[in-house]
Amino acid sequence: MPKLKLSEYEQKKIMARATLKNRMEIKQISMKAMAKRLNKPKSTLYNRFANPGIIRLDDLWTLVSLLGLSDEEILQIVRGKEKV
Questions:
Q1: pTM score above 0.90
Q2: Can you state the angle between helices 31-38 and 42-50, rounded to 10 degrees?
Q3: C-alpha dist (Å) from residue 50 to 1, 2, 13, 46, 84
Q4: Going by CATH, does the domain composed of 9-79 fall within 1.10.3470?
Q5: Mean pLDDT over the full length of the chain
Q6: What's the pLDDT tens digit per position in 36-53?
Q7: Taking the domains of the chain in order of start, what are their residue ranges?
């Protein structure tokens, strides 16, 4: 069976998820600690990481300060492109 090309939306989801998880590994912050800082249940955080399109702006602001995301990484999350 031929391999299907991912849609643009799926590519953006993968890029956003990878950018956030990469920065979490660098900062050594667990999902449990992240959920506590965001004042959200872990299940909500897992859902938002699985579907980055539903991350709220206030959560994104907290993630930026907590993870120390650079401007380039923020654009990767928002635009879903590897290099901006």
A1: no
A2: 100
A3: 26, 25, 8, 6, 23
A4: no
A5: 89
A6: 998 999 999 999 999 998
A7: 9-79
